[in-house]
Amino acid sequence: MRNQDCIKITNLKVFAHHGVFEEEKRDGQDFYINAVLYLDLHTPGKSDRLEDSLNYGEVCHFIHKVFTEKSYDLIEAACENLCTRMLLEFEQLTEVEVELQKPHAPIGLPFENVSVTMCRKWHRAYLSFGSNVGDSEKLILDGIRKIQEHPLIRGVVSSKLLTTKPYGPVEQPDFVNGCLKIDTLLNPEELLEFLHEVEAGADRTRELRWGPRTLDLDIVFYDKLVYESEDLVIPHVDMQNRQFVLEPLAELCPNYRHPMLGRTVKQMRGELKNVEYVNQ
Prior knowledge:
The protein is an alpha+beta fold.
């Protein structure tokens, strides 16, 4: 649920050089920016101290700096960059909504304004990881380090590493498993693509379902999202039957409720207590 507290900036005028046409890049034009900054204002509302809030003057100057330091063909690209940079710069922000207006666009017909509006926010995701080929602990720690280093990921917290029995019908060595909590600006498909890159860096191959692997990274939860595409299903399919996911996940978020099943991680783990394999 969105925090309803916000600070609004209306019609911030910035002269910049964005546009597809050469004369737009050369001559520039005025743009107007409206921004809604979502953050918890309860503490500054009680304390009356600026240091407990967000200095909107600093935000306005930051917007001006970011918006004028590079020329974009599309206002969509300029707006995307502005949203991302604001969320990275001001850690109090949980979400931003930015409207970028271009009232002097070279349309050639009478018009009042043209604009794009974007909403971007930090997302909470939970990932599972596992390995049973090579130096599993090193492969996992290297993978976690790469995740921590991604510029659009922060707040990485890892569970303890666990040694678990393999899940599924394939006979193979024991696994080292665990889970991560992350906050990210990546959307689900972007996050999946990045995790596949990390797996590939560990020489992960996918010849055999439930087979041995150097490094396996999966998205278990992403906010309260229920999502399905050709390559990705969220929440992760069958996670409720996998002790090697639920055990470390319960360390990170025992009261997190599955958006489809309605049961908490702690409840799902309890239902599988002392069960080694399920639905083989």
